[in-house]
Write a structure and sequence with these properties.
By secondary structure, the chain is an alpha+beta fold. Helices cover 37% and strands 19% of the residues. The strands form two sheets. The protein has a seven-stranded mixed sheet, with helices on one face. It starts with a helix and ends in a 13-residue tail after the last helix.
Length: 193
């Protein structure tokens, strides 16, 4: 009897060991920052050695997390944002920051290679990536590629998660910015009826 009680106790206390792997995986890769929530505040150093603080940006902000500097997909993504950065700043009065886990020296080299004139931030140790809850990709082997669009108060209005199609992030970000843009005001007097 003692033996069967011991076996039952062990089985009950370690039931999670028998949980399907997909359940555990989903828990580890769920996006923590959701639309409608305020993004975590952070301060990271960019490619020029300047500290960027999220709460100091009093305008809409595109925050995109990418796996690594100077890799093929990340280069495509950075070039896509660079090609649209002036439009984003002018049309939407917004800015863009890219974030990955390499240091400031790597960021500086990557920015110079591509001629980037927006900030890419060094998140060594992935503290900010973890605060945002960016999931791992490729069965947990790679850091994920996720783009968040925040309004001027830091509230998340859009989350786009797509590792494979790096270039698609710019269009999704612009769509989200366009939805936030206020309707143009009509000039002149209008009758209330």
């Amino acid at each position: 009897m003692k033996t069967s009680a011991l076996i039952a106790a062990i089985a009950c206390s370690s039931a999670s060991a028998f949980a399907p792997a997909s359940t555990v995986s989903r828990q580890q890769t769920a996006l923590n920052l959701k639309v409608g929530e305020t993004a975590p505040d952070f301060a990271l150093v960019d490619q020029n050695g300047k500290t960027f603080k999220r709460s100091a940006a009093k305008k809409p902000l595109v925050v995109y997390f990418y796996p690594a500097d100077s890799t093929p997909g990340c280069t495509v993504q950075a070039k896509a944002f660079q090609s649209e950065i002036q439009s984003i700043r002018k049309e939407f009065k917004a800015d863009v920051v890219g974030i990955s886990g390499q240091g400031a020296e790597s960021k500086q080299k990557f920015a110079q290679e591509l001629g980037l004139d927006f900030s890419i931030l060094a998140d060594e140790g992935d503290a900010v990536r973890n605060q945002f809850g960016v999931p791992k990709a490729a069965f947990g082997f790679l850091p994920g590629r996720v783009t968040y669009v925040l309004d001027k108060d830091g509230v998340c209005t859009s989350v786009y998660d797509n590792l494979a199609d790096a270039a698609s992030h710019i269009e999704k970000a612009k769509e989200a910015l366009a939805e936030m843009k206020p309707a143009p005001k009509k000039a002149g007097f209008t009758l209330p009826f």
